[in-house]
Amino acid sequence: MIGLPSNTRVWIAAGHTDMRKGFDGLAAMVQTALATNPFCGHVFVFRGKRGDIVKLLWFDGQGLVLLAKRLERGRFVWPQAASGVSLTPAQLSMLLEGIDWRMPVRTHEPLLAA
Length: 114
Known about the structure:
Radius of gyration: 15 Å
Oligomer: single chain
Strand order of the largest sheet: 4-3-2-1-5
Number of strands: 5
Strand content: 15-25%
């Protein structure tokens, strides 16, 4: 994944998106569905109906960047929200790996400091 600036927010567009959309179509969705400026520097994530493809739209200060990922097996975990959902960069990394980012489980919980 491309390193994002520390103040970058990640937004998931709820529902399904037509994956035939490109730069302009997805930017228009950001303006209408999320009521946000697509050129604000945040990352916007869209998922197709089958759930195996996501597209990310990001303005890096010079132009729009469009990334796509398709899982060969499984589906991307998607929220059941009516509007956009904000993620942390760590949750975005889990999402792109096909991991359930909503309830990650730690492998070890420390009991004592010493």
